[in-house]
Amino acid sequence: MSLSVTNLTASYGSHLVLKELSIANLEKGSFTALLGPNAAGKSTLFKSIAGLIKTQSGDVVLNDKNLKDYSKIERARDVIYLPQSFYSSLALSVFESVLVSLKQKSGWRVKPEDIQQVAEILALLNIEHLAEKNISELSGGQKQLVALARILVVKPKVILLDEPTSALDLHHQLSILTVIKKLTIERGLITIAALHDVNLAAKFCDQIILLDKGVIQTQGDAHKVLAMPILGEAYKVKTLLETGSKGQLYLDAELLEGA
Ligand SMILES: Nc1ncnc2c1ncn2[C@@H]1O[C@H](COP(=O)(O)OP(=O)(O)OP(=O)(O)O)[C@@H](O)[C@H]1O
């Protein structure tokens, strides 16, 4: 299974955001970071892939089949976009919220295996202790974990995560990215996460895509992309790439003089 994007163009009215953008094959079991400055179009790209906004032209192909040829139900089940903000009825408990997400995709009758699946995903994300809490009682970071549980429980093929660590503390950033990577490999998912932390992207992702000026400026492994001047140009900073004693990459950045 692989995902590719060819010549994708998307705009809001006359504001052209994606300009014949292409992404080379992303294979199953791969975890890709989508980098790019604010307003580059990362969310727009995710929404276009998930079929949530109309595109002017271009193709998204999953498993040799154009997503235009998927039924709405099939596309919504296989390709899931997790937005930055979390939407769920505040009156539901965490357990109910994840169960509702599961049942939205597979009919209303709740079976014992559904309950089992919800329990398993809560355990996997280490949020079993929140199961009976109401969504309204959760912190921002806890809500982010529940949002992730809600999409993972439906067993999608492609997950598009919009800044999945933005509300998380350091411990939870590391633990959530570890779980996402593990699940991506175990379940053979194609995972793309928009991340603002370049060093987390280098630490966890197999490859990095840099979106700027409406197109993919580069796509490749962290060693290649982080060393490219185009990264600093996109963020309007001066970058310095260092390698730690265990081979880990560390990108330092400074504002350009006069900026
Ligand atoms: N619904 C909308 N209507 C009109 N313009 C929009 C809409 N959503 C996004 N835009 C514009 O499209 C451009 C790309 O926005 P998008 O949210 O895709 O960027 P992003 O890379 O995800 O940004 P960020 O890193 O700040 O979240 C921005 O200029 C934004 O103002």
UniProtKB/TrEMBL annotation:
It comes from the Bacteria. One of its GO terms (molecular function) is ATP binding. InterPro entries: AAA+_ATPase (IPR003593), ABC_transporter-like_ATP-bd (IPR003439), ABC_transporter-like_CS (IPR017871), P-loop_NTPase (IPR027417). Keywords: ATP-binding, Nucleotide-binding, Translocase, Transport. SUPFAM superfamilies: P-loop containing nucleoside triphosphate hydrolases. It holds the Pfam family ABC_tran. The keyword Metal-binding does not apply. Part of the ABC transporter complex HmuTUV involved in hemin import. Responsible for energy coupling to the transport system. PANTHER family: HEMIN IMPORT ATP-BINDING PROTEIN HMUV. This is ABC transporter ATP-binding protein. The lineage of its organism: Bacteria, Pseudomonadati, Pseudomonadota, Gammaproteobacteria, Oceanospirillales.
